[in-house]
């Protein structure tokens, strides 16, 4: 999903000369850095705001548009500097913002204390600016493959970005490869304008054609520099050919077969649109619903059947190893940890199934003494406490009762929300070591859940063959709604971020489709007064980040790593 970050600050420390005349008041600007949160990532400066002169309470106009995946931890460091008259910069403070927690906060705004002042970050759905649908083909491309073979062309589109390091060209789109063809015809594509050109139809973009090489050392075949508007104009004219150039020489043509801009209906009146632009109603997004105050709640259901093995024996799935998490604990920590960012009360009802109490198998029992454990730590405590409760691990594996329970909870929650003019949606996380005993009964339970504001995530742990769970793939076609996702834990057991990203990536669309299917759009964004926002303590000491700031470029010179691994206690 495409989101937009805006920044402002209040009462920053005046490092330009405290107590002097207005001429000695700071001229602040902010630098936003994406912090590396996963192994293999590197920190990256996203960009900087404009300089707001002569104030210690700036409200920056520059915003930052970027991709955000619900299941992937994303942290941004915001560093504020005073721009000195000699061209140098002086620090005014810094703070770290977690994108998920900021989105989930009231008003989608977080505030952090920085050197006596306060820094505010707000994240909204990017209102970019529509879509660009295009289709290109090449004609008489110059072969770079040699005498006996033809090139395998593909193209990439780069956007001109004015960031902290000056003007750069950043990759925004890559086409498919057309094998062995100097007159390739590529597929029709649709790209968000916010991604392609930041909504500016006259922003320079570059289209570069390459010959594909398996080694990754793709050979340039030619380039054009243009804009979205120029591509639309070319499509509307008789001559749709644009000449590719390489090192000053003409090396073929790009033919614009299709170039259409679709603008949001509320924008076409304020922006001169190209001749073939059409208006459209922008589809609401997950972020729109969250911004509007939609309450998310998470319920956890854990498999205590005998197939998990004796929990007292090392190597079994429920063995509580003092040196680290088992797979159940890892799944709880990672997935509930991410979803907790959107759950305002931090209460997570936790249930078990498949254990025998007083001689009878129970397929929906409360874990732990509290009906709603608090936070991830509370869920983990509730999970562990069951093993000292006198249970006997039994069989079969049966999800139906916990699904019915989750349906009832979600419907009651939504009914209460509607009475207060609000919205609510629930997520059921089921963690199990094997396929269900009765697929038909499970499908019937899912059918009963179709009309509930509910998504169901099932995580399979252990070495079982989960092929019998493929019947879940038929649920969307049978019920007309995609609401269930099954993931094998072992495929992502080495990377908590990969697990959460794959597990949760369908939930935003499921939430949107549920409300849209009932004609319920997002509520207006929740607005909060400044005094209502809780200002969190200064985090500057926790930010291990050094920036090399000069007139020409801002780069990360040290630190910038905050690796998140939910699999580690």
TrEMBL record:
Residues 297-507 form the VWFA domain. GO terms for molecular function: calcium-dependent phospholipid binding. PROSITE patterns: C2, VWFA. InterPro entries: C2_dom (IPR000008), C2_domain_sf (IPR035892), C2B_Copine (IPR037768), Copine (IPR045052), Copine_C (IPR010734), VWF_A (IPR002035), vWFA_dom_sf (IPR036465). Residues 1-112, 115-242 form the C2 domain. GO terms for cellular component: plasma membrane. One of its GO terms (biological process) is cellular response to calcium ion. Keywords: Repeat. It comes from the Eukaryota. Belongs to the copine family. This is C2 domain-containing protein. It comes from Amphora coffeiformis.
């Amino acid at each position: 999903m495409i989101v937009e970050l805006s920044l402002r600050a209040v009462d920053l420390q005046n490092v330009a000369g405290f107590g002097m005349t207005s001429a000695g008041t700071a001229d602040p600007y902010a630098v936003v850095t994406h912090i590396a949160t996963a192994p293999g990532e590197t920190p990256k400066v996203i960009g900087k705001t404009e300089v707001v002169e002569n104030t210690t309470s700036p409200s920056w106009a520059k915003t930052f548009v970027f991709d955000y995946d619900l299941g992937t931890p994303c942290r941004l460091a915001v560093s504020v500097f005073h721009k000195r008259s000699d061209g140098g910069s002086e620090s005014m403070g810094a703070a770290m913002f977690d994108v998920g927690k900021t989105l989930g906060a009231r008003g989608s705004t977080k505030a952090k204390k920085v050197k006596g002042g306060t820094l505010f970050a707000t994240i909204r759905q990017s209102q970019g600016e529509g879509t660009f649908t295009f289709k290109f083909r090449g004609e008489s491309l110059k072969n770079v493959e040699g005498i006996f073979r033809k090139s395998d062309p593909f193209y990439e589109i780069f956007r001109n970005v004015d960031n902290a390091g000056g003007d750069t060209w950043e990759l925004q789109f890559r086409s498919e490869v057309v094998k062995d063809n100097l007159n390739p015809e590529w597929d029709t594509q649709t790209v968000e304008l916010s991604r392609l050109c930041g909504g500016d139809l006259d922003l320079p973009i570059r289209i570069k054609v390459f010959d594909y090489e398996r080694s990754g050392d793709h050979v340039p075949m030619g380039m054009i520099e243009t804009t979205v508007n120029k591509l639309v104009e070319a499509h509307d004219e008789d001559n749709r050919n644009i000449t590719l150039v390489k090192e000053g020489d003409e090396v073929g043509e790009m033919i614009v077969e299709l170039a259409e801009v679709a603008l949001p209906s509320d924008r076409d009146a304020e922006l001169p649109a190209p001749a073939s632009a059409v208006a459209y109603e922008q589809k609401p997004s997950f972020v729109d619903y969250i911004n509007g105050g939609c309450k998310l709640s998470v319920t956890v259901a854990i498999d205590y059947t005998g197939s998990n093995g004796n929990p007292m024996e090392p190597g079994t799935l429920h063995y509580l190893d003092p040196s680290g998490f088992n797979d159940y604990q890892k799944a709880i920590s990672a997935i509930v940890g991410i979803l907790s960012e959107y759950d305002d009360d931090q209460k997570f009802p936790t249930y078990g199934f498949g254990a025998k109490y007083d001689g009878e198998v129970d397929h929906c029992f409360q874990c732990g003494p509290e009906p709603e454990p608090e936070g991830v730590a509370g869920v983990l405590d509730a999970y562990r406490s069951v093993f000292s409760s006198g249970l006997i691990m039994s069989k079969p594996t049966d999800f139906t009762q916990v699904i019915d329970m989750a349906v009832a909870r979600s419907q009651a929650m939504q009914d209460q929300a509607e009475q207060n003019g609000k919205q609510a949606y629930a997520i059921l996380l089921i963690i199990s070591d094997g396929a269900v005993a009765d697929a038909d009964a499970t499908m019937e339970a899912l059918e009963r859940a179709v009309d509930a504001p509910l998504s169901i995530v099932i995580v399979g742990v252990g070495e079982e063959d989960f092929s019998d769970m493929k019947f879940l793939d038929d649920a969307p076609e049978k019920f007309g709604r995609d609401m269930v996702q099954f993931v094998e834990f072992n495929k992502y057991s080495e990377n908590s971020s990969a697990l959460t990203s794959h597990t949760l990536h369908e939930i935003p669309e499921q939430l949107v489709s549920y409300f849209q299917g009932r004609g319920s759009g997002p509520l207006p964004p929740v607005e909060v007064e400044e005094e209502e926002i809780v200002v969190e303590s200064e985090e500057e000491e926790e930010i291990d980040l050094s920036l090399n700031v000069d007139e020409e470029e801002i780069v990360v010179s040290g630190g910038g790593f905050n690796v998140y691994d939910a699999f580690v206690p």
